[in-house]
Write a structure and sequence with these properties.
Blueprint (H helix, E strand, L loop, with lengths): L3 H26 L1 E9 L9 E8 L2 E7 L6 E6 H5 L4 H31 L11 H28 L2 H10 L8 E8 L1 H4 L1 H29 L8 H5 L1
Antiparallel strand pairs: 1-2, 1-5, 2-3, 3-4
Helix pairs in contact: 1-3, 1-7, 3-4, 4-7
Membrane topology: Multi-pass membrane protein
Keywords: Membrane, Transmembrane, Transmembrane helix
Family: Belongs to the clarin family.
């Protein structure tokens, strides 16, 4: 049976990872970005309108004001609309979802390994501390990749400019969307504490593993540290 100290450290590691999964689940269900654009099409009385797309990972909302004519508000599912525009935004968005799925999987595995270590001593396999290091590291790294890819997808591609006429079913040539302004929302920012908690789970296990290793080395100290008279005897 493991010591009470080991049980405490690994249970705390599992708890931190469980909290991170809760944050990740909430992040995936809420809003990630809001993009505002000026609409230089044939607005009412020749005035320029605007278009605003609010997006989560799965659903979104488009609000148009005089773009190109009267205003409207349309809700949409993200993936069906991405299938109607160029392939790059679709691939990058799908990559984000795949990486987030990997985060869920590796975090769940990290919890299982931590719980197993709280009641056992499988040090020489990946069911030991190395399993926590590996799973939680993949979780943190994948979430950071999502932070980068998601923003690049919104900044470098024309996803929003193509979504507006696609969702509103208006000709691409009837509007010109300019001055794109991106604002990331809470769903995006929640990936930061998720990554931090994954790293803290690693740190807790490392602190215990390092202390246990130091203790074992002290117990295995060679006999030259013994008093000379005892060695001569």
């Amino acid at each position: 049976m493991p010591s009470s100290t080991k049980t405490l450290y690994f249970l705390l590691s599992a708890l931190l990872t469980a909290i991170s999964i809760g944050l990740l689940g909430f992040a995936m269900s809420t809003t990630w970005s809001k993009t505002k654009m000026d609409c230089e099409g044939s607005g009412i009385n020749g005035t320029a309108g605007s278009a605003e797309i609010t997006m989560g990972l799965f659903n979104g909302k488009l609000i148009r004001v005089s773009c190109p004519n009267f205003g409207s508000e349309d809700s949409f599912s993200v993936f069906p609309e991405l299938l109607r525009i160029e392939v790059t935004p679709r691939v990058l968005h799908g990559l984000c979802l795949g990486l987030l799925g990997l985060c869920f999987l590796t975090s769940a595995l990290s919890i299982l390994v931590s719980l197993y270590n709280s009641v056992s001593n499988p040090y020489e396999t990946y069911m030991g501390p190395n399993g926590v290091y590996t799973c939680s590291s993949i979780s943190a790294f994948s979430s950071v990749l999502v932070l980068i890819i998601y923003v690049l997808n919104h900044i470098l591609t024309k996803m929003q400019e193509e979504l507006v006429p696609s969702i509103a079913t208006i000709p691409d040539t009837s509007v010109t969307l300019t001055h794109k302004r991106l604002e990331v929302k809470i769903g995006y920012f929640l990936l930061i504490p998720y990554a931090v908690l994954s790293l803290l789970a690693i740190l807790l296990v490392y602190l215990y593993d390092h202390a246990a290793y130091t203790h074992r080395r002290e117990q295995e100290r060679p006999t030259e540290d013994a008093p000379k008279e005892i060695m001569m005897y």
